[in-house]
TrEMBL record:
Protein name: Signal recognition particle subunit SRP72
Alphabetical UniProt keywords: Coiled coil, Cytoplasm, Endoplasmic reticulum, Repeat, Ribonucleoprotein, Signal recognition particle, TPR repeat
GO CC list: endoplasmic reticulum; signal recognition particle, endoplasmic reticulum targeting
Pfam families, per the entry: SRP72, SRP_TPR_like, TPR_8
Predominant location category: cytoplasm
Biased composition (Basic and acidic residues): 539-560
BP GO terms, sorted: SRP-dependent cotranslational protein targeting to membrane
Domain named Signal recognition particle SRP72 subunit RNA-binding: residues: 507-563
Taxonomic lineage from the root: Eukaryota, Metazoa, Chordata, Craniata, Vertebrata
Family the entry assigns: Belongs to the SRP72 family.
Coiled coil: 58-113
InterPro entries, A to Z: Signal_recog_part_SRP72_RNA-bd (IPR013699), SRP72 (IPR026270), SRP72_TPR-like (IPR031545), TPR-like_helical_dom_sf (IPR011990), TPR_rpt (IPR019734)
Region spans: Disordered: 507-645
Native species: Opisthocomus hoazin
GO molecular function term, any single one: 7S RNA binding
Amino acid sequence: VLQISKDDVTALQCKVVCLIQNGNFKEALGVINTHTKVLTSDVIAFEKAYCEYRLNRIENALKTIQSASQQTDKLKELYGQVLYRLERYDDCLAAYRDLIRNSQDEYEEERKTNLSAVVAAQSTWEKVMPEDLGLREATYELCYNSACALIGQGKLNEAMKKLQKAEELCRQSLSEDSDVTEEDIEAELAIIHGQMAYIMQLQGCTDDALQLYNQIIKLKPTDVGLLAVIANNIITINKDQNVFDSKKKVKLTNAEGVEHKLSKKQLQAIEFNKALLAMYTNQADQCRKLSASLQSQSPEHLLPVLIQAAQLCREKQHAKAVGLLQDFADQHPANAAEIKLTMAQLKIAQGSVTKACMILRSIEELQHKPGMVSALVTMYSHEEDIDSAIEVFTQAIQWYQQFQARTNYGCSVFQPKSSVHLSLIREAANFKLKHGRKKEAISDLEELWKQNPKDVHTLAQLISAYSLVDPEKAKVLSKHLPSSDTMSLKVDVDALENSHGATYVRKKAGKLAGDSQQKEQGQGDVKKKKKKKKGKLPKNYDPKVTPDPERWLPMRERSYYRGRKKGKKKDQVGKGTQGSTTAGSSELDASRTASSPPTSPRPGSAAAVSATSNVVPPRHQKPAGAPATKKKQQQKKKKGAKGGW
C-alpha cells in the first residue's frame, strides 16, 4: 500500500503499530518523525509517546502527551506511568485516582495495582504516611505493594506477614495454569523473596538474609534491577569483610539498563557503596573519583564528603580531612551539625580533646541537649577542666530557663520546670559536690527543693552540703526531715539478715527458743564452765621416767645428737661452706694409700713407669662392672624404653 501511496495515513499507522508489536521502537519512532506532516500529534500521539517511553526518553514522552490536543484514556494511562518513572508521585497518584473514578473496564485491577505501587513509593522514598485507599488485597501484587508501604513505615513484622500472604497467593494463581513450571513460579517469587531477605537484614538476621539473597542469584532472574538491588544488599552485609565476594557482586550493579529500572535513591545508594568498597580495597584514586562524582550530583549530600574524609584519614591526613569537613560546613550551614560531630570525633582520635570540645560547643542547636552536655562534661573532666564543665551545665540550665520564659510569656501562674531542666540542675549539683564546689551546689539544691519540697532525697543532700559549710543552717533544715515513725520502709528484715552479704546472721529459731526456756526457769544467768580436754600422751610414756628437757628442740640441735650411723662418708660430702674440707678428707685421698697405683708423671719429674711393671695406668683402667652396665643398658634399649639419659 505504501508503495502505491507513501503518505497513506492508515498504512503508516498500521506499520508503526506492527513495529511496536515487534519491539522495534526506534524504527517505529523513525517512521513517525519522517512523516510528521501526515502523522500529526492528534493522529499518532499515543504511539509516539509510547515509543519514547520504551526508549527511556521519559521527558520527551511527557512533552508529547502534554502537547496532544485530546487526552484519551490510553494517553492518561501512559501519563500515569511516565509520572511514576519521573518520581512525581503526588501527580501520579492524582492521575490514577482520576482514571479509576472515570473508567470501568477489565483493566480496573491493574490500575489499582499501579495506585498501590505509587503509595508504596511515597512511603519508602518520601517517608509520607500512606492513606488507606480501601483496596482489597485479592492479588499477590496488591499484597506485595502493601508490604512495601509497611516497610517504609518501619512496620517490619506486619510487612513480613503481608509478603508471606503474597507468596501464597502467587503460588495459587500460577499453579492453576498448567503451562507454568515450578521454575517459572520461583522466578516470579524472586522479588517477593528478595523483599523478605531485606526485612531479615533490617532485623539483624544477616545470615538468613544472605542465604536467601544467594538463592535468588542462583536462579539467574532476568530482572537486572532485582539483581542489582540484591548484589548491593550483599555488599552492605559484607562491609569490609569478604571483599573478594563484594567485588564480584558489584559487577551485577553495572549491568546494562539498571539505571532505567531503579529509583534515583536506589542508584545513589549503590554508588555510595561502590565508593566505600573502593576505600576498603585500598583503591584510593577510584574512591576519590566516585565520591567526587557523587558530590557533583548532590552537592548538599553528606555522604560523599564523609567518604572523602574517611579516605584521607586512612592515608593519615587527618588535618586535611578536618579542613575538608570545615569547608563543607561553611558552605552548607544546614548540615553543619553532623559535619562538626565528625570533626570532633577526628580531633578526639588525634588526642586533641580540648579542640574537640570547642567544636562541639560551636553547635548551637545541640548545646542544651542532655547528651551533648554529658559528653562535654565527661571530656572536660578527663582534661581536669572543672570550670569549663560547670560552665557547660550553667549554659544549658540558662537555655531552659529562657525557653520556659518565652513559652510562659504573659502568664502569671507559676509554671513548674521541665523534667529535663530539673535533671540538669540535679546533675550539676552532684558534679559540684563531687569536685568540692559546695557553695555552688547548695544554690542548685535549694532550687530543686523549692520546686519539690516533699523530695526527701534533695533535702538530705542539702543538709549534707550545709553541714560542711553552715552547721546551724543544717540543723534548721533537718527539722523538715520526716520522723522515723512516719516513714514506712517496706523492708523484709529476716530476708535482709539472712542475705548472702549480711555481716550479722541470726541464730536458729530452735536455739533461741531453748535459751528463752532456760531463762524462764532462772538458769539463764548461770554460765557453764567449759571442760578442758586432757592432752594426749605418747604410747611409750613412762610416768616414772623424767621427760627429756630438750624434747622441744630439733634433733640436730640436741646435745646428745651424734649424726646418722649409715652412710657417714656420703653425708660428709658437700657439707660445710664452699671450699672447706672435712676432717676425714685425707682418708679419701687415694694417692696417700700404699696400694694405690701411681699417677701420671708430673712435668719436670725424672720418674717414669718401667716397661716390666704390671700396674695398669689410670687412663687405661676400666671401672668395675662396666661391661655388665653396658649390657643392661642395651637390654633396656631393646625393650623399647622411651626414657632419655
